[in-house]
Write a structure and sequence with these properties.
Domain UBC core: 1-55
Order of helices and strands: HHH
Keywords: Signal
Largest sheet: none
Number of domains: 1
InterPro entries: UBC (IPR000608), UBQ-conjugating_enzyme/RWD (IPR016135)
Number of helices: 3
Mean pLDDT: 93
Shape: extended
Helix content: 55-70%
Radius of gyration: 14 Å
Protein name: UBC core domain-containing protein
Strand content: under 5%
Distance between the termini: 32 Å
Signal peptide: 1-19
Length: 56
């Protein structure tokens, strides 16, 4: 953590990662592979997980 990092900068970075993910440096390689090779399945899975875990 750096004093130069403000809450607004952290939130902006999170928004950037959510809108433009980097599949070449993934946290979960299987998800990155799906993102790169099966975009419709990736979108379907992302919607389902969002519904389940973020919206109850």
């Amino acid at each position: 953590w750096s004093p130069a990092l403000t809450l607004s900068k952290v939130l902006l970075s999170i928004c950037s990662l959510l809108t433009d993910p980097n599949p070449d440096d993934p946290l979960v390689p299987e998800v990155a592979h799906m993102y790169k090779t099966q975009s419709s399945r990736y979108e379907e899975t992302a919607r389902a997980w969002t519904q389940k875990y973020a919206m109850g």
